[in-house]
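Fresh eyes needed here. Kindly weigh in on this sequence plus C-alpha cells:
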Amino acid sequence: MDVMEKLTILTDAAKYDAACTSSGARRGHRNGYIGNTSSSIVGCCHTFSGDGRCVTLLKVLMTNWCVYDCKYCVNRCSNDTRRAAFTPEELADLTIQFYRRNYIEGLFLSSGVLVSPDYTTERMIRCLELLRDRYRFNGYIHAKTIPGTSPELVTRLGLLADRLSVNIELPSEQGLTALAPNKTRKAIFRPMGLITSTLRENKEELVKYRHAPQFAPAGQSTQMIVGATADTDRHILALTQSLYDRYRLKRVFYSAYVPVVENSLLPSLDSKPPLLREHRLYQADWLLRFYGFRAEELLDDDAPNFDPRLDPKCCWALRHPAFFPVEVNTASREELLRVPGMGTVSVDRILYARRARRLEPEDLKKLGVVMKRAQYFIVCKGKTAYGLKLSQDGILRNLLAVEKASLPVAEMEQLSLF
C-alpha cells in the first residue's frame, strides 16, 4: 500500500473527530525554522487561530488499527474496514511536503490504539520529533492523548505539540460501560489531570526561565459525542462546567453522533445526526465561557434538555422575566451580557459609548446589538425600545420567527420536526 492510499484511508477515518481548533497557539517566528502559528486536498480541515485567521490542518490518524471495540466507532477492532498505518517517517515527510506546497499550515494527529496506548503514543512522539527536529517545523500541531498512556509519554508529547486533547467521547460512565468496555472514566481523566498540573508547573517555570521549553502552550481540549446515549443536555452541560472549573480546558467540543455502525444499543442507521441539539450545546457552551452563566442556571430537573426552537440565552430570558427589562444606560456589564441579542463586543461598545452620552434605541443597532432579540428585554431612559408592549406569549412568537430565519438549512430541517 503506497502513502497516498494510506492517506485516503486514514484521513477518512479521522473525519469524525471535531476537536481540532488551534485557538490560543502562540508559536511565533524562529530563525532557521519553517511555519508560524501567528501569521483543496484530501484530509484537510479548516479551523481558526487565536488571531482569527482561518488555518488549514492536515487531519489524519497515525493508524486506524485499534485493539479497542467501542461500539460507536467505525475503527473498532470488530468492524470490517480497510486498515492502514503510517510509519513515523512517512507521516512526517508527508506533512512537511504538504506544508511546502502550501496545502496546510499545521497538523491534527490522532490514532487508533495499536498494540497499546504507550506503543501508539511512542510512534506519535517519533513523528512529531522528526517534524520539530529534522524538518525544523515550527507550525501548529494538535495531538490526541490516548487514555491509559504513561505520564512520562504524555509529558514528552506535550513538549512537542501546541495543544493536547483527551476525548471523553461519552458523557456518562454507564455509556462507557455499555458502548466502550475497554475505556474507563479514571483512565480518561487521569491524563487530563496530568496535563492540567503540568501546564500550571510549566507556566511557573516560564516566569523564572523565559527560554524553558513550553508544554502544550495552547492548552487542552476534549470532545463528547451527542446522541449516541440517552444522556440529557443537563448532564452534558454539567460535565462541561466541571471540566472548565477543574481542568481549565480551552474548549469542549460536541459531535453529533453519525450512525455508521449497526448496533442495538445505538441509534439506527436511518436516523439523522442531532445537528440542532449539537448547535444548542455549542451556544450554551459559549454562555458558560464568555457570558458568566453557570450550567445549573440554564437547565434543571424541570427542563433537562434545551428547547430546540430557541437559543439557550432566549430561553433563560423568558424563564426569568423578573430580571428584565434592563436599563441600557445604567446596567453593569454582567447584566447586559444576559440580554438576548447582546454579545461581548456590543456590550463593550455600549459601555464605552455611554460614557459620552445617554443612549437611545437607535444607537444600539449601530453598536452591533441584534435588536430583533434585544428589544423585548431592554429599556432606554426608562422607556421600552420602540414603545413595545407584548405579553410573554407574544415575545415568544416573535423570537421563534427570528430564530427560524437565522438557522442553517440542516438545523432548520430538524426544527421542522418539533
